[in-house]
Amino acid sequence: MELIAERGYRRTSLAAVAERAGLTQQGLLHHFPTKELLLVAVLEARDRWDLASSAASAAGSWRTGTLAQLVDYNATRPGIVQTYTVLSADSVTEDHPARAFFESRFRAVREAMAAVLRAEFGETLPGGLTPERAAPLLVAVMDGLQLQWLLDPQDVDMPAAFRDFVALLGRGGD
Fold it and tell me: Record's InterPro entries (predicted)?
């Protein structure tokens, strides 16, 4: 994950991953026969470690306060956040092997966020949007805050900014 975060997927070689992991390239290839399978394993590991994957399966019990705890947790692991950010941005390029993963993941996360918003606000948020209309905005705020925090951690307090956004949700247009 560190190498992908540092170099991006396309500039990360299996030889460099093997060296960083303390393996021979043949040893790495035993576990991950292709670079694409390694990438999928990295993404799946990130989701296992990320509480957001739990949101997709248990969204009905989550609230925005739970999401704020997720943002707090992400602030303790900049390397994983950086890897996710680099890979998700890189996946929009033509023929990227992670594109299908991120398309599916973002669909599932939007659905989970709509369920979170519905559980907390009902069918209409204070600003008048439905949970489905607000869900992409919530995901954009979370991902955008991560990017800003990675670029300027001294000036961007990701957990505080997310809590400010949640406060805006609760007040609507006030």
Answer: BetI_C (IPR039538), Homeodomain-like_sf (IPR009057), HTH-type_TetR-like_transc_reg (IPR050109), HTH_TetR (IPR001647), Tet_transcr_reg_TetR-rel_C_sf (IPR036271)
The DSSP call for residue 34 is S
Give the integer Cα–Cα distance in Å for 128 and 32. 48
Cα–Cα distance, 143 to 141 (Å, whole number): 6
State the DSSP string of 98-148: THHHHHHHHHHHHHHHHHHHHHHHTTS-TTS--HHHHHHHHHHHHHHHHHH
Which domains, and CATH codes, for the chain?
43-171 (1.10.357)
Helices (H), 24-94: 25-31, 35-49, 52-58, 64-74, 78-90
Q: How far apart are the first and last CA of the chain?
A: 42
The 10s digit of each residue's pLDDT in 102-154 is 999 899 999 989 999 999 999 999 889 999 999 999 999 999 999 999 999 99
Task: Over range 67-86, report the average pLDDT.
Answer: 87
Residues 6+ apart with CB under 8 A from 97: 9, 35, 36, 39, 40
Place of tokens 């869900």: 135
Element spanning 22, H or E: none
